[in-house]
Amino acid sequence: MKIYVSKIKESWIVDRIRDEWYETNKNISTKYVRNADIVWVLAPWLWKKIPQSQLNKKKILCTYHHINLDSADEVNNFHELDKFVHEYHAISRKTESDLQKLTNKKVTTIPLWVNTDNWFSIEDKSQLRKKYNFKEEDYLVGSFQRDTEGKDLVSPKLIKGPDIFLSLVINIYKSNKNLKVVLTGTRRQYLVNQLKKNNIPYVYFEMLKINEINEMYNLLDLYLVTSRVEGGPQAIVECGIIKTPIISTNVGIAPEILSPDSLFDISKNNFENAVPDVEFAYENSNKLTIPNVTPVYIDMFKSFYED
Fold it and tell me: Quick check: 212 pLDDT over 90?
């Protein structure tokens, strides 16, 4: 059994997952699609990068992070891809449930792993704050995912909920003037502009290396996930394994990793009732380290190959 993993080269989570898979599973992997028995399409829009002649010859397993069933384009794209896919892999139970509304093909649910070489707790928080010129009294609230649509760098990416994030930090700032928002990543212009407009203190680190992002997580007093639709986000397990306090909307993998007390419902406006539970999140995230979860992935592929 040889597995080829699709690639994108956009410095996204898909690239990290691909690299880490090849590093830890060399004996059952190939970097040449023609030599593969299984083609693992790591995200649905990557399938068009694979020659159709190979799609017709190989066993195709496609990973879905999330699918918006209210989007006609996403549903139509699914049905186009479904002609080639033999089985699906979902990274959360919510995504599994959505896929099962569209297909009778097998769906296996396994969250993406967390690499503890990259994500780990740092004890000396005071020194970290000095390194990045934060004060001890600063209340640091983080968001590390993009928030604008496409290339216009103006329109908010509403499924990620940057408008919700903005509303929450404005309310926090009313009662805590030590609040400072910490942003990383590309396409953060919507929040940067809105934070300026509302006079909310913030720091924006656009391009950071993984070790620096790990330090950012370790600095935070709170990480906020405010998405309306998600597959992960991977920030949930990264915060979990680092023991960064986190609260989230009930999306993607959140209910599988976080305590029910750490989830909030936008429609019920119950954000203030949500409480981080770092030990609960750590225990569940620790089940998803590379040594713990890789055998589960291998079992999925073996079962797929032998069917």
Answer: yes
Closest residue by Cα to residue 50 from 1, 7, 105, 3: 7
* 96 and 81 in a common domain: yes
Question: Do residue 18 and residue 162 come from a single domain?
Answer: no
Q: How is 69-110 classified by DSSP, letter by letter? A: TT-HHHHHHHHHHHTT-SEEEESSHHHHHHHTTT--S-EEE-
CATH number of the structural domain spanning residue 195: 3.40.50.2000
The most confident of 34-38, 81-85, 238-242, by mean pLDDT = 238-242
Cis (ω within 30 of 0) for the bond into 162?
no
**pTM metric for this prediction:** 0.92
- Amino acid identity, position 171: N
pLDDT of residue 10: 60
Residue 139 identity: Y
